[in-house]
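Annotators were shown the component list below and the corresponding predicted structure, then asked to write short factual statements about the assembly.
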Amino acid sequence: MQWKKSGLILITVLMAIVMAACSSDGEKNTTTTDGQTAADVPQEIVVRVNDDPDFLDPHKATASISYQMILNIFEGLMAPETDGSLKEGLAESHEISEDGLTYTFKIRQGVKFHNGDDLTMEDIQYSFDRLMGKNGGEKMSNSFDNVASTEAPDASTFVIKLKEPNSNFLYSLTGRQSAIIPKRNDGKHNENPIGTGPFAFVKYAPGTNLELKKNEQYWQEGLPYLNKVTFAFQSDDQAAIMSLMANEVDLTSVPWHRVSEVEGSYNLSHQNNNSSLIVTFNETKAPFDNVKVRQAINYAISKADIIDSVFAGYAVPLGSNMSPAMGDFQKKGLESMYERDVEKAKALLAEAGYPDGFKTKITVSSHNDIYSNIAQIVVANLQEIGIDVEIEVVEWGIWLDRVYFGRDYAMTTIDLTGRASAFEVLNDYISTNDSENFFLFKNEEYDKIMADVLKETDQAKQIDYYHRAQEILAEQATAVYIADYQIVWGSDKQVTGLKSYPFWFHDMSEVKFSN
Amino acid sequence: MMYILRRIILLITTILLVSIITFGVFQILPGDPVRTMLGTEADPTQIENLRSELGLDRPLYEQYVDWMKGLLTGQLGNSIRFSMPVKELLFDRLPVTMSLAGLTLIIVLIISLPLGMFAARRQNKLSDVSLSTVTQIGMAVPSFWLGMMLILYIGLQFSFFKISGYIPWTQSLAGALSTLILPALTIAIPQIAVNFRYVRTAILEQVQLDYVRTIRSKGMSEQNVMYKHVLKNSMIPILTVFGLIMAEVVAGTIIVEQVFSLPGIGQLLITAISNRDFPLVQGIVMYITVAVVMINFIVDVLYSVLDPRIRLR
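Structure shown to annotators:
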């Protein structure tokens, strides 16, 4: 009898749980992550991002994932445009002297920080001094080594004088590289970040989310529309798409192979990532020090195979380290320079002294599946010309240590994050750029072009320089420039106003929920 | 008393050994936390600044001594990845993992105990055989797969269940349950299977013993036989397994929190390891060690209460 009773109790408990679950059906859209109801919280968005920011202090942050979020909090004298050009930000206008050395900025009046304080020249001066290490601390950026002096002749003018002309300098003045932060918040920029941007910091819960609220006093009339932005950290792409389906997030990237599952029910937008996904070599190590070997590999690797199988077609083939997202700065046509040709590849290998191929290793990071997926195609492609490639998968930290900083590798594959500035996209290959040139590429003509372009003020001529630089990278087969893969963003159908930049930035200023 | 003292000495030794190993392991493992954190875009100035700010440029023995001193006073240092005290991060996450572990244990208990007793009573009958088969499958199922299946077939179908995030008990009881039930079931299902089998076996072993026959022959009611004698005497083997299950539950949270994006200690550990955030990893490992060692200690003490003969061994 007792056993029957226990069974009965058990069944009752289980039924109660199931009924509780079913009875709440229909509340799907009304509960939010913090337990409030949708009716109480209009214009609030939950954006899924893969990882936490490295720092909230904009001068300390370096990871692109951080800027994706914090550029909503901070602004610089200049601001990025969606086409990669620049517009005025906290500066109302700017003038550059004829010799290219003096930059004069008229600063917007009436701009307030999130704590209610007015933006003053003292804050601007403080921000640059902090970056250059002039107010006692360590310098925080190398971008301002070329600055001779900064001064504020009156309450609305800020002047920066350079030691040498630099056509890329304006790009150093956006919120990404020199956010203007209040002097009064000194020492607290990381735990309580304050800026002038459309959203103000509310709370950061490590590993969970970053909450921002509307800046009611934002200087751009009528903006922003959203009252609250929550960046929810979720590393797993597959789990993220389920969160989108369960209405727990409103915006997330969608894994390429799962686009068909959300098509129709969600708004999809495609963003050129402006990154260059490359398969590259250590160019000081034999046999990769031989340009013919590098060209042979370029002929042997099928970009189309990689684009189709790894990115399900959501990628644009590249011919050098620049994506079509960069507009006129990109040299077009280079992507067809090495059309797949196995025979030509074999011939080049033979000319280089490797008629029977050779053995080598490709070291890839495990932090994203795409690298090992690409490596498998590389192995199959190169097998056809006799090159025997072993795949070595290592953790991201080890990849950085050994491959990127240690340069102890033969082959690798990685995507080089896009920047808004053409110069910064290409400067990795300058032979003296010890911190970024992990290919150990050395080419005198290239170095000269990249030095000359900084002195050139005419944009048409700058473009010519950048085109030639890209040709050199292609001719020298510095890497196999595979593709700029697209990020497919899936969002709630009511979300409008998403803007896409040629770098990672979830600009929430014009986003709203509309019926 | 000597028994408990011996257990305490064993407990302290285990914790000390683990602390030494966790510190040592990070000195051998490749991967630089500063570079991992700042990625490819950091310039050398930023890398050097951060390294000196974190004290990573100091000699190893100084770092070790400081860590040990901190450990004794309960200060676990600052996380590299999150620029926050490890203690603060742990305290923020602890309620999530504790709630998850607690709910899991309750589910395991309320299902496996009656089920095990039920099956034991019906040994070799159809219900017993089918339960044993089902639990055999339950034991073999990997938790990440089970989690995904629960998300797909329950989480996405019934909106009561949330598939990511966490709502604290203090804010909403139903909210907390909606975030915790599916992850708790994910950990619980294999453990129910394990516990069910032990309960069943332990009771069957007892039932066959002479004393049961004797008390039955004296006319004691079946209910009294089961609860006053059989169940009490079966508790020692069941407790052993239950101690192990509790340790499994604590460990299980690591994978399950990742699958359900639950901001608990397990998820924190994975982030910490992939970022080479060794102060944080050391802190979490110490927490898990203390939790598991304490559970075993409590189980050992409970043994000695249930069966005084154990104290004499």
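Statements collected:
1. Chain B has a mean pLDDT of 84.
2. The CA atoms of residues 38 and 288 of chain B lie 28 Å apart.
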